[in-house]
């Protein structure tokens, strides 16, 4: 089992320096606090990154402009790495706001991401170490509307705030977080071959097994 010092270097808590080390060490202390891990279907995380970071959005607000600027920079940086997975069909169906097809990006991730996986889609097992940290609750994004009230009641923090049960889409409209995830995913992955799906399963094997996600429905007969 790795030492805590080694794990500190591996866990990305979106912070730097002494604060990161201090906070990470606290995670390993028994009964220090209620520990909650939030999971998401592995295939949804890949799709979400592609949509949020590798496509442009319509609009002229400062937020949309910043998003499109950052997406363009990422796409330029990864152009050669991802384009090699495009086919005549995916290029033909590429939409104006897409730098790459989702099929090509999924294959890029499935084939090792050029040896440098991004924090946005690295496995939760690697990122949050559920086998080493004794989490009290596992929250799934797909069922957050049911999970969140129970945790808030358990912690007795009703007066402090609540988990969001809606999100804003790029047009500013609200949408329930608990939408048809499986329907959306099956549509996005419908043209991706079984070899690629199984490679993704291998990468996220322990996320699928530990958090109760299924890959079989994405395999073509």
How many structurally independent domains? 1
Number of strands: 4
| Count, helices | 11
Q: What topology, given as strand order, has the largest sheet?
A: 1-2
Gyration radius, in Å: 19 Å
Largest sheet: 2 strands, parallel
Strand content is 5-15%
| Structural classification | mainly alpha
What global shape is seen? Answer: globular
* Mean residue pLDDT: 79
Distance between the termini: 40 Å
How does this structure look, described?
The chain has one domain (35-218). The termini are far apart. With 221 residues, the chain is mainly alpha-helical. The protein is globular and about 55 Å long. 15% of the residues are buried. Helices cover 49% and strands 6% of the residues.
Keyword list:
221 residues; mainly alpha; 11 helices; 4 strands; disordered N terminus
Short description:
The protein contains 11 helices and 4 strands. The chain has helices at about 5-10, 15-25, 40-55, 60-85, 90, 100-110, 125-130, 145-155, 180-190, 195-205, 205-210, and strands at about 35-40, 135-140, 165-170, 175.
Map the helices and strands.
Layout: H1 4-10, H2 17-27, E1 36-39, H3 42-53, H4 62-83, H5 88-92, H6 102-110, H7 124-128, E2 137-140, H8 144-155, E3 166-168, E4 174-176, H9 181-188, H10 194-203, H11 205-211
Parallel strand pairs: 1-2
Antiparallel strand pairs: 3-4
